[in-house]
Structures are given as C-alpha cells and as structure tokens.
Amino acid sequence: MSDERVRVALLGCGTVGSEVTRVLLDEADELAARVGAPVELAGIAVRRPDKHPELPQELLTNDAGALVESDVDIVVELIGGIEPVRGWLLTALRKGRSVVTANKALLSEHSAELAEAADLSGADLYYEASVAGAIPLLRPLRESLAGDRITRVMGIVNGTTNYILSAMDATGAGYAETLDEASRLGYAEADPTADVDGYDAASKAAILASLAFHTRVTASDVHREGIAGITASDIAAARLLNRTVKLLAICERVTADDGTESVSARVHPVMIPRSHQLAGVNGAFNAVYVEADAAGELMFYGQGAGGAPTASAVLGDLVAAARNRVAGGRGPRESAHAALPVRPMGQTPTRYHISLDVADRAGVLAQVAQAFATHDVSIAAVRQRDRNSTASLVIVTHSAPDAALRATVDEIGKLDVVREVVSVMRVEGEDS
Amino acid sequence: MSDERVRVALLGCGTVGSEVTRVLLDEADELAARVGAPVELAGIAVRRPDKHPELPQELLTNDAGALVESDVDIVVELIGGIEPVRGWLLTALRKGRSVVTANKALLSEHSAELAEAADLSGADLYYEASVAGAIPLLRPLRESLAGDRITRVMGIVNGTTNYILSAMDATGAGYAETLDEASRLGYAEADPTADVDGYDAASKAAILASLAFHTRVTASDVHREGIAGITASDIAAARLLNRTVKLLAICERVTADDGTESVSARVHPVMIPRSHQLAGVNGAFNAVYVEADAAGELMFYGQGAGGAPTASAVLGDLVAAARNRVAGGRGPRESAHAALPVRPMGQTPTRYHISLDVADRAGVLAQVAQAFATHDVSIAAVRQRDRNSTASLVIVTHSAPDAALRATVDEIGKLDVVREVVSVMRVEGEDS
C-alpha cells in the first residue's frame, strides 16, 4: 500500500454524488485496499453549501473553479450540462488531473477537445456512467475489443422511452396516456423532451459510435427520431407481425461497394421480432448488442439509470483512475485514428415496414408495387387482409437507402387507392 | 505515435495463435494506430517448427524458454496446461514482461504466484480469454465494478455441456446418445471429461470468484459436479415444473448470521425457470449474470469458445498491455485483499428439487415431511400425482445448508414408502 493519498474533488452532490460521497467517507478502508493507497475526498463543490447540512461542512465550497485548480488528483463531475462544466474539466485535464464524469451531453459534443487535453497532460478521462448506467459497456468497447473490429452497436439506451413502449405494448394504450402514467409513476421527467424526442439516446449513440469506430461522432451527427409519433396502431401493426417496437440507438460501420467505409449513427423507433433478445428487455432496463468480426455477437444487459447503478459506474472509473495514479501510468486512451466519415441518414441502408389501408379492388398492389420499383426499393414480404370496404396491405422491404424508402412512402401516400398510411416504421432483425 | 516498438513473443500457434499471428502481421498498421506504437511479432515458439510451413520461418523456434528470456515486452501464451508453461510465465513476469494468456487451468491454480510476480516487476497479467471466450467479463469485474460490491456471479461458462443439455431438453433424448451426437458434430472433444465432469467450468468459477470477491480461490476450492448423471427423467421433471436444466458456475458472497463473510464457488447442474434469462442461452453460447450492491443485475452474453472469439479476447488484452508499455504504466492490478474464507459446499445454502415415486397410500407425505423436519429443512412446495399403483411426489425446498439437504435425500431414499428417487437437483431462480 502506497502512503501517498489520492485526492478527489467532487463537483455536484445530488443523488449520484451523495452515494459517491458515502462510499468515499464510509468505505475508505475498502476503497484504499482496492486502489492500493488511501483515497481522500478533498472537496465537494455545490451551488448552495447551506442546503447540504448532511455533508461535512469543511469539504463544501461553491467555487468549483477553485476546487478544480487546487491540489487534487482526480475530478469527479456530476453536475451535468455543457457550460460552465466544460471549462472546469478542460482546466482539470490540462493540469493533469484525471476526470471521471457521467456527463453525456458534454461528452457527445466536446469529447475531441477533452480527449486531446487528457492526452497532452497524460491524465485519464473516464465516463462509463454516461451510457447505460451501471452496465460496463464503454470499457469493453475501448479495451476488451481493442484488438477486434466492431461492426455494429445496437441497443436500448434510454429507460424512460423503453418503459413507455413496453407499457404501450402490454396495454394497447396510446402514447399520451402512457406518458402521463409514466410521469405519475416517476419513470418520466416533468419535462420528458430529452428522453421522448431521443436527445438522450442520440448523445449516447454518439459516444458509442466514437468508441466503437475510433472516430469522433457528435450528437449532431446522429439522426434522431423520438417516440412521440408512435401510435397504438403502430404497436398493433407490430403485434400482428409478431414484433414489438423499441427505440434503438444503432451505430453501424457501413462498407460501400467500392470498399470505402463510413459510420452511421441513428436513433429511431424500430420494429424487432419478439424472438429478438432486445425484445425481452422491458421496463427501465437497458441492453446493448455489439457485433464484432472476431468476437461475434455480444450482449450487455443491466440497469441503465438510477442513483446507485450510476454511482457504481462512477466509482469503477474512480478506482481505475486512482490506481493509475498510484501506479504512475494512465489507462488505455481512446483513439479517433480511423476518422471515418459519418454517413447521412438518407444514404444509410434500412428496411421499412409499411401498413396501409387501401381500396378493396383489383390492381391496388400493382400500383403500390410500382411506386417501390420507381425508387428501386425491393419488397421482401406483402400481406393483404380485407377489412369491410377497405383492405389492409402490410409491406416489409428489403434493405435500401433510407431516402429512397422515404420517397417511396411519400409517393404511396399520394396514390388514390391508398386511403391511409397507418404505420411506417423501420425494422431490424430477421423474421422468425 | 511512439517510435519505440512493442515486441511480442507468442507461445503456441494453434487455432487461436494463428489468428493472433495473422492480425499481428497483416493488420500491423491498424494495431499500431490503436496502441500508439508499432507492435512487432518477435518470435513464435512451437513444438515442431517444421510442421508450420505457413508461418514466417525466421520467427519460429522450438525453444520457448529462450524466447521468453529474449528482448521482448509482452508474452502471449496459448499453449495451455500447467507445466512447463508456469515456469516460462513466471520468468517472463519476473523480468518485467507483461503476460497475456488464455490458460484457465494455470490461472485457476497458480494465479497467486503469477500475480505476485507481476506486482513485483510492474508487469501486466491479463487473461480475459480464459473465461467465456470473447465476452468481455474479467475486465468489467476487475475494473468497471471496482468501486462496487459484487454479491454473486452465476453463469453458463462451458459451451459443450450447454450444447448437450440444450439438445437433451429439445429432443428428450438421454445423456449418452446426446453426447455421442455432440462428439460427432464437433461440439464435444474426443475425451470430453474436462467439459462434462465440470473441470473446465470449475477452473473458470475459481477465476471469476477470485476477481469478484478479491480473494484467491483455486479450482480445488470449487465444489464440482458434472452432467454425466443427468437423465432424461431429470429433464422431464424440470419440464413439468416449467424449468430447464443448465450446468452453472455459481460464485456467491455468503454472509453468516454473525456478519462474517465467506465465499462459495460451485459448479453443478441446476434447474432454472424457463423465464430466467439464462434459460434462453442455448447451444454453445455462454452468458454470465453478475449481481452487485449498487449496479444491481447485469448480464454478459456471447460466444464462449472458438478460435476467432478467443483471439478477439487475446488481442484486446494484447492491445491493453501494449498501450500500457507505451504509456509507461501498467493497468489496474487484481487484488486479493479481502482474503475471504471459502465456504465448504455442505455449509453453502442451496435449494433442492426432489422427485419421488412413492407408494400410493395415505401417510406417505407425512413420513417424507418428517424426514425434512428432522434435518431442519423447510419445504417450499409439494405436488402429488397418481400414477397407477405408485404416486409421484415432487418437492421443492426452501434454502438450507447443502449437507442437510443431502442428508434428507439419503434418509428419504431409505423410507419403505419411497419406491424410487427419480430426480434430485438444485434449483435457482424464482418460480414464475
């Protein structure tokens, strides 16, 4: 055991911060044994120290900037948001302090400059808690699969939307009333925009794609569609096909015919077969599939949010950073050496499910099929069903550029024989 | 990019070694970019160099000992077995060379001296490939959950036995004929002892328990029962309860009434509910559940064996070790600071399923129940069913010390009213 203490500054002390503080203060011996040296909580920056009578008063400060500049080894940031946190963390990294953060918004926009600052000073920059809470996912992507070639990362990374979609699937209820219920039960924030419109998942997709493909991908590079447009009809249409609807973050390595590679990162609702392992991930759980050339198919499953799970991820990073301090080195850094271009959504290959109410007369399918042919989209399966004077037509396509699929849907919507486009949704996974 | 080369010695060049060699030679640029310095294959030790015309002849040697002593930074060991590999790796670690190995037999017996040698010289000792092939599992246990308290690691870690049990469940066939079929299809070795008798899983359980509980657990500490005794009746009995049979490695932190902690590590067949996520892991796949105080329930799923998946894990370790060389540090070491005692199987709390053929007359249940009461074992559920002149009695117990459960079964087997003990098996997971 080294005598040298590892000094930790904590920025922010909400639910996660309180748990981190508890472990640092109450489980100091255990932590020291794991790190190989005592870990000392040097200070806690909170906006209003007088609001935290439960914390040791001598540790509290409302001057996060000064705490970061003081003599500490590791800065744990749990405030969130971009400014002023970005400046504090850049200062910390430039001064050689390692940074542990759960800040997905910051990471998904500014990871390049943060990583560069860490590289220059030899500090660690860890952010396991920023994606999928307690599930150890970023470390495996960054380290365990470092000798492999990842081709795809696809998962459920937002618990609120997964709770809502699971409930809609279970009850058949509509989106608005399910969201209300989720808010009432505490599964959705008072302002659920960041979750239901996919911003949260898009930030996580950017972080995942960056690590998986050694390429800087920011949240603005991620194509984003939320779940507010999902109707009970969509869920019912999925159910008829023995599928269910999930909001997925999908990051893919796309290889063009000429061999050039690019990265696609997107967040949108997807119909997946009920036999798919992601279909069984219900409620507020997260799960992420990873496909790699050599490793094959991997899945990581666990709690994606909550104070204790997030604190577990933060503490794991903190122990790693502290051990590196004691050992005198630093952990494996991330690498953006591949610098692949990001493929626009329109050029990303996807597959569509389209459910239509059409006139019940001969020749309808021919007209609809012609619209597909015009846009060079190949049809994988068609089901027709009579419904009084209208008929229902369900089509699943083969893979085609997303723009061609959208253009096809637009054209179909204008056909006289089509009474209503009931549901349009992308699909993933093989039909069983 | 550093100019300094990282020199790698490879011991053994079978399926996994060939894939590692291919990546080192053919994907040198990509590897260098990930490591931050060129990675050079300095030599390959094989028993018979003349049997490897496909490899660069100038790299081959049959003197592994000399290769280990030469000027290399990292030794990748893919020979397997304990001697003479143990001596070579100790030499390498003592000289400060980092070691990457997939050798579960060695690790499960001699990790203490290997880890000590690594600690003394500041070298890395990585062995992700030794458990669950390509699934990144050891690194998360060692690093991501380093700030959490793991209470349980339970999983399917042997593909051969999982293939056999999956097939028995699907076909209703017996053990012997299913094993023959598995051998014919290449899912079982010509000598399947290490797999079917649970030695392979026990080695992995020792490695998992050591990392999870910061305690040295060796394979000989692991209670081990294989699958050779599983009958079609056992599988059928499980099916009647909507359960299936899996060979599980179970590592638990057990807290006694007085608060003292110990570790239980065991490998044996278990009935689990079909609704349990491990029940859906079929064929040669592996999956491991981890429960931790803060992180909650996690699952890791993927391919547990095979050349490419194992090579992926080896290369991940190799990249991590090489990056540490370039950065001048070393990765987080494992820690055995907790040094918890290993709890004997007899004192480990388990639950039993017992299926009996009994005489069809009044008072049978009373006699059987008395046997349970004598050993202070509490019954959770009983089902009775008539079957001509015999009746079937199925009992699931509450948790009790394994020795008490075994004594109960012994006593029941001697009762006049019991015609046959049809199936006895431990159970895990809640009944749905």
From TrEMBL, chains A, B:
EC number: 1.1.1.3
Cofactor: a metal cation
Top enzyme class: oxidoreductase
BP GO terms, sorted: methionine biosynthetic process; threonine biosynthetic process
Binding-site residues for L-homoserine, renumbered to this chain: 189
GO MF terms held by the record: homoserine dehydrogenase activity; NADP binding
All copies of domain ACT, residue ranges: 353-426
Reactions it catalyzes: L-homoserine + NADP(+) = L-aspartate 4-semialdehyde + NADPH + H(+); L-homoserine + NAD(+) = L-aspartate 4-semialdehyde + NADH + H(+)
Alphabetized InterPro entries for the sequence: ACT-like_dom_sf, ACT_dom, Asp/hSer_DH_NAD-bd, HDH, HDH_cat, HDH_CS, NAD(P)-bd_dom_sf
Coiled-coil region: none
Residues at which NADPH binds: 104
Record PANTHER family: HOMOSERINE DEHYDROGENASE
Function: Catalyzes the conversion of L-aspartate-beta-semialdehyde (L-Asa) to L-homoserine (L-Hse), the third step in the biosynthesis of threonine and methionine from aspartate.
Family the UniProt entry places it in: Belongs to the homoserine dehydrogenase family.
Name the UniProt record assigns to this protein: Homoserine dehydrogenase
Organism name: Prauserella shujinwangii
